[in-house]
User: Fold this.
Amino acid sequence: MSATDILVTAFMPFGGDSLNPTEAVLGMLPDDMGGFRIEKLLLPVVFGEAARLACAEIDRLSPAAVICLGQAGGRRAITPEESAKNLMDARIPDNAGNKPEAEPIEAGGAEKLYSTHPNDAIIAAIRAEGLPAQLSHDAGAYVCNSLLYGVLSHTGGRIPAGFIHVPFIKEQVEGVPGREDTPFMEL
Assistant:
C-alpha cells in the first residue's frame, strides 16, 4: 500500500461474450515490474459499480498510477484514451441490466476529464513491441468511459491515471456470426 503500487484494472466479459481480452491481459501481467508492485483488479461491467470499486481500491492502495483496461471490439489498434466525457449512453445493457440513455455520470460535473497518464510514451512503448497503437479521442459512452471519468474525477490529477482500449482477440471473432470481418489481435 504505497506509491510503489500501480493499480491495473480490467473487465469481466459482457454483451454475450464468454471472455474479455482485458481479463486475459490482467492475468498475464507480472506481480512486479520496473520496481513497482502491480495490483490487479477485475471489475464488473456495471455502470457506477466499476468506478466505485476502482476508487475504493485507489483509496486503499494510494497507488503511484492507475491504468484501466477495456475492450473496444472493432478497433484495429491498442488505443489509450485521451479523455472521458460526462455521459452514459448505452446501446446494450450492462451486466446488471442497466441501460442509461444520455445521462450524466456526475450531475454538475465537468463535461470532459482528460487522462493524466503519459499517452505518448504509452503509445511509443506499445509500438516498440511491434503492435499497432494510436491515441483515441472517444472512449465511448459505455462502462469503460464511465470508469475512466470516475477514476479521473476521484484522483483529481494527483496521480497518473488513464484508460487503454484493446481490440477483440481471435477467439471472439473466428466462427462468430456477424464478426467475420471484424479486426482482432493475438494476445
Notes: The chain has one domain: 5-172.
